[in-house]
Amino acid sequence: MCRQCNDSAHNPEEQSLLKERRHMLMAGAAMAAAPLLAAASPNAGAAPANAASAAPGGGGSKNAPGSGPGSGPYLARAWGVAGAGSAFAPLQIRRRALQPNDVLLEILYCGVCHSDIHTARDEWHAVMPTTYPSVPGHEVIGRVAAVGSAVSKFKVGDIGGVGCMVNSCLKCEACEGDREQNCAEGATFTYNSPDPTLGGATYGGYSDKMVVPQHFVIRIPPGADLAATAPLLCAGVTTFSPMQHWNLKSGQRVGVIGLGGLGHIAVKLAVARKAEVTVFSTTPGKLADARRLGAKEAVLWSDAEAMKRLARHFDLLISTVPQAYPMQQFINLLKLDATLVNVGAMDNLQGINGMGLVFGRNSVAGSVIGGIAETQEVIDFCTARGIKADIEMIRPDQIDMAYERVMKKDVRYRFVIDMAANKQRNI
Fold first, then answer.
1. For residue 271, how far is the Cα from the chain centroid?
2. SS3 for 75?
3. What backbone torsions phi and psi does residue 241 show, to the nearest 5 degrees?
4. Going along 122-275, which residue ranges are E strands?
5. Mean pLDDT calculated for residue range 372-388
6. What is the model's pLDDT at position 72?
7. Strands, E, within 194-348: which ranges?
């Protein structure tokens, strides 16, 4: 029985040796045998014809860039933007040669996160200016096409996932504690982060291949719905992590603020933990969806009577809204000593009243994604319970359309790009 979610099917070991847990995650490539994965997942796609001959070595390259799997370096086909107001277009990018601990992934699917939109349009310029050309994407599922000489976690043909990070120092207190996202030296994020090997900025998963250290590649269990699992690599761990840290238990009351890409997964995760879930949305058409997803109640922000009735009601609130908004109306819904966790808005928060906080001894906290061990944990948790994102599949040449629909709240609930689709149409 898990002490955190009271779920008999979820029984992780006590978190006593963080290093040991990380080492366990690095071991055992046999857990993801390629034949089992291919048979279990109907949307996994056919293995590349040259995958079996991929050279596992990592000691330099005799190949010209893009000449085949080998050890690289590689030329990759990608979709990116040249500036904040540019449309997405095909471009060619360079991926580094395999280093001993690297994995080459041939990308199958990539989810569309609101962070992709913020970055492509340089909306976080004040704190995270975008380097152009920009290739977003950090919800990546792919097939291993080649591995470096020291790789033990994967073999050619395995399925792996890449979330929001592709490197960190692995030596600081945060990294040793399985919190690579909080690396003291700064994590290397999957896109728009300084690239220590090639220079410039990192390029994300809107591409056909990428090279990533094995530590930062997540094992995808056999039987997973690959396209619908991709969003769990960001949206899943982003909402799972606060539930873990604030110890959401069976029977507790949790409110999910915003029902979008993050929010709909938060609902599914909280319901799986047997919590009592209430969804807050500004969109009347989403209230029925919230109940379908398992919420006990769904409330419009504008429903003053409902907001008054729910005062001092919640053990935990998770805000998934990607822009700042006046928060005090939700802080008023917290029980004594309870916390509102912001995982969505990255700019200055609004409308927080100090007196309103102190008289309830309430907290407003932030949480960003999760570490690699926790990302593996949420993937395993969700696969075991059949939890996946509600997705709409698109082609790479439809990314601009998808962005506009996200901004209009016209997606239920995550776009996922089929990265092979335009190849089949010769685009």
1. 19
2. strand
3. -60, -45
4. 140-147, 159-162, 165-167, 188-189, 209-213, 218-219, 253-257
5. 98
6. 79
7. 209-213, 218-219, 253-257, 276-281, 297-300, 314-319, 334-342
Q: What per-residue confidence (pLDDT) applies to 64?
A: 39
**How many Cβ atoms sit within 10 Å of the Cβ of residue 9?**
11
Residue 29 has pLDDT above 50, yes or no: no
**Phi, psi angle pair for 391, to nearest 5°:** -125, 160
CB environment 78-113: b (16+ within 10 A), e (fewer)? bbbbeeeeeebeebebbbbbbbebbbbbbbbbbbbb
243 and 218 Cβ atoms separated by less than 8 Å: no
Residue at 292: amino acid letter: R
pLDDT at residue 290 greater than cutoff 90: yes
Tokens 């005090």 belong to residue: 328
Match 């085949």 to its residue by tokens. 68
Tell me how crowded residue 185 is: count the other CB atoms within 10 A of its CB.
12
Helix, strand and coil content of the chain, in percent to the nearest 5, comes to 30, 25, 50
Determine the Cα–Cα distance for residues 103 and 91; give it in Å rounded to an integer: 22
160/241 Cα distance (integer angstroms): 21
Find residue 386's DSSP bridge partners: none
Do 78 and 207 touch, CB atoms closer than 8 A?
A: yes
Q: What is the pLDDT of residues 354-372, one digit of tens each?
A: 998 999 999 999 999 999 9
pLDDT in tens, 109-135: 999 999 999 999 999 999 999 999 999
Domains and CATH numbers, the chain: 18-231+389-424 (3.90.180.10), 235-366 (3.40.50.720)
Residue from 117, 191, 8 nearest 408 by CA: 117
pTM: 0.84
Give the pLDDT confidence of 318-345 residue by residue, as tens digits. 999 999 999 999 999 999 999 999 999 9
